[in-house]
Design brief:
13 helices; hpI Integrase, Chain A; 4% strand; DNA polymerase, domain 1; DNA-binding; Integrase; DNA_brk_join_enz; 2 domains; 282 residues; 51% helix; mainly alpha; Integrase_SAM-like_N
Length: 282
């Protein structure tokens, strides 16, 4: 490992960047260096801009992907190299605001029914019922489920931004988790890998499991497993949960992030139901 790479890793660890973020940032800087066949600390802002333009015009990468690269390069030039003035001149690309397609309760019931096995079905139900990111649901441990009658919550450890939080544990989800535990008997990780119980379920495998269940269920709406988190937020808003409470459940640092779901929610429904419990009304 080069001293420069180690320096960047150390800077990211000191600032508490998530492991996936660290990997993404390192990949961006490595790609930039490979493009110019030289160490990235020898490049200037003009070369960085030319590389970003190349990724947009010739490789046709999405603006969200390019913006992630911008974040990585700002960190590298500003924090690691201390070249603040050059880092500031790297522009962000305008990202079109597209609203996700929200699954209906009937579609969710079909999705869970179409899951390949009990573990996959329970994982997908947990992601929806607790509003979890795919990395969060895969990283759950058995000890994170607090089923005491006066608690009924799930602890999310080191979510996005390294933040811990608590989210809903509905009676319906607890019932499903107990059935799953009796049959599969997970010990440490709630959803361990089939081939290695000492490791948590792989994020990419969870994503593929969602796509397979979606296709089997005949659901044509786009989006990956993160769609379940969108559905959780939208259905709770429709059920009358206030925006501040929802923001805490989702782990959002700013209400403005949660407000996007106001554009997706429809009026009505019964206040304060868990979204998973609503499936029983079908």
């Amino acid at each position: 490992m080069s001293p420069l790479r180690q320096q960047m890793i150390d800077a990211m660890v000191l600032r508490g960047l998530a492991r996936r973020t660290q990997q993404a940032y390192l990949s961006v800087v490595a790609q930039l260096a490979a493009h110019y066949h030289c160490s990235p600390d020898r490049l200037d802002a003009a070369q960085v801009k030319a590389w970003l333009l190349h990724r947009i015009t010739e490789r046709h990468l999405a603006y969200t992907t390019v913006n992630q690269a911008v974040c990585a390069l700002k960190f590298f030039f500003d924090i690691v190299l201390g070249r603040t003035a050059e880092a500031i001149t790297i522009p962000y690309a305008h990202t079109p605001q597209r609203q996700p397609e929200i699954l209906s309760r009937e579609e969710l019931a079909r999705l869970f029914e179409a899951a390949a096995n009990l573990r996959t079905r329970t994982l997908l139900m947990t992601a929806y019922a607790a509003g979890l990111r795919v990395s969060e649901v895969c990283a759950l441990r058995v000890a994170d489920i607090d089923s005491a009658p006066d608690r009924m919550c799930i602890r999310v450890v080191a979510g996005k931004g390294g933040k811990d939080r608590y989210t809903l544990l509905s009676p319906s989800l607890l019932e499903a988790l107990r059935v799953y535990w009796r049959i599969c008997k997970p010990r440490d990780w709630l959803f361990p890998r089939t081939t290695d119980a000492a490791r948590p379920f792989d994020v990419s495998s969870a994503q593929r499991a969602y796509y397979r269940a979606r296709d089997r269920a005949g659901i044509t709406k786009t989006g990956g497993i993160h769609t379940l988190r969108h559905a959780f937020a939208t259905h709770l808003l429709e059920a009358g949960v206030d925006l501040a409470t929802l923001a805490k459940l989702l782990g959002h640092g700013h209400l403005s992030t949660t407000q996007r779901y106001l554009h997706l929610a429809r009026p009505g429904s019964i206040p304060h139901d868990s979204p998973l419990d609503l499936l029983r009304r079908l």
